């Protein structure tokens, strides 16, 4: 074994501390060299089939808002032989140099919906492919269920084996372009506002919101679309997101504070598009048409593969997809309906008995929301909540996964 490979087998040595040009060769040498007892390879490869009984494990992906310029740069530097071909495939699939915008910006270009959405999805799947190809992580063997927050649902469907990655990228790009068109030329400011309140009063506040907006009433149908406001996301037991006319949202907040006895903290989100609202109906129509066609990259095949490899949770129902046709319907409706993220986590935690949660993709918002609901951060007895958005997080997360692999499930 070479001296470099010997150094690599020492658990205190980090592959990321080596020059990028040496990493692939050093990893290959260390990976193929027999290890001495009581030593660990540097890369915490997960190649041993999991035991039959282990904590149920969920893999989840983030939505829009987590994008940042340079979010693939460290991954390319650490794993160039795996990442560069993936980046090339992204640009070839979309016939545009999206990866340059991801790497170099400007930020204004990256945050545009038609760029941000495929960029986030592509980066999330890129990280998963690094785990699989560089660390031997067998997704279908180690993961019991997949889900994603809003846009993240597309990455989850790729990971779960329901959508081909190139098809998903094309769908997300076209969907983002329609989102952009829907938001322009409305003559009124639109966007999204998060409301954070006390968990025990959230139900009453949501009821007051629906009452003020006239949801479920006959006269609600006469409200101009641009003035409509919807509960776009139920993110946590104490947080929802409103989407639509900013003027109308401000009127609603005044009503809640002056007449309904609620005083939530309101946070304007970095979004100029009212996602998950009636204004996005053209995007839902596009998705219905696109999902009814054959795959653009696998001629003669359906764009949706059924069954998938891993059960997947729908944003719209907070339950697993049950059929190919239902998946197509719900994925299209997701553009205009509420994302039941909190309900999904509660279902998986309390009914499906998921005890380990792995967030993959840029940012930390998703893992924080999950961690608060299930009462875990990092590794705990019988499970944990982890996130991988940076190459330096991989080895520790995989090591903690292996440490909890045979932990007994708790009731």
From TrEMBL:
<dbReference type="InterPro" id="IPR050858">
    <property type="entry name" value="Mal-CoA-ACP_Trans/PKS_FabD"/>
</dbReference>
<feature type="compositionally biased region" description="Basic residues">
    <location>
        <begin position="40"/>
        <end position="56"/>
    </location>
</feature>
<dbReference type="InterPro" id="IPR014043">
    <property type="entry name" value="Acyl_transferase_dom"/>
</dbReference>
<keyword id="KW-0808">Transferase</keyword>
<keyword id="KW-0012">Acyltransferase</keyword>
<dbReference type="GO" id="GO:0006633">
    <property type="term" value="P:fatty acid biosynthetic process"/>
</dbReference>
<dbReference type="InterPro" id="IPR016035">
    <property type="entry name" value="Acyl_Trfase/lysoPLipase"/>
</dbReference>
<dbReference type="InterPro" id="IPR001227">
    <property type="entry name" value="Ac_transferase_dom_sf"/>
</dbReference>
<dbReference type="Pfam" id="PF00698">
    <property type="entry name" value="Acyl_transf_1"/>
</dbReference>
<dbReference type="GO" id="GO:0005739">
    <property type="term" value="C:mitochondrion"/>
</dbReference>
<feature type="region of interest" description="Disordered">
    <location>
        <begin position="32"/>
        <end position="56"/>
    </location>
</feature>
<dbReference type="GO" id="GO:0004314">
    <property type="term" value="F:[acyl-carrier-protein] S-malonyltransferase activity"/>
</dbReference>
<protein>
    <recommendedName>
        <fullName>[acyl-carrier-protein] S-malonyltransferase</fullName>
        <ecNumber>2.3.1.39</ecNumber>
    </recommendedName>
</protein>
<dbReference type="InterPro" id="IPR016036">
    <property type="entry name" value="Malonyl_transacylase_ACP-bd"/>
</dbReference>
<feature type="domain" description="Malonyl-CoA:ACP transacylase (MAT)">
    <location>
        <begin position="60"/>
        <end position="393"/>
    </location>
</feature>
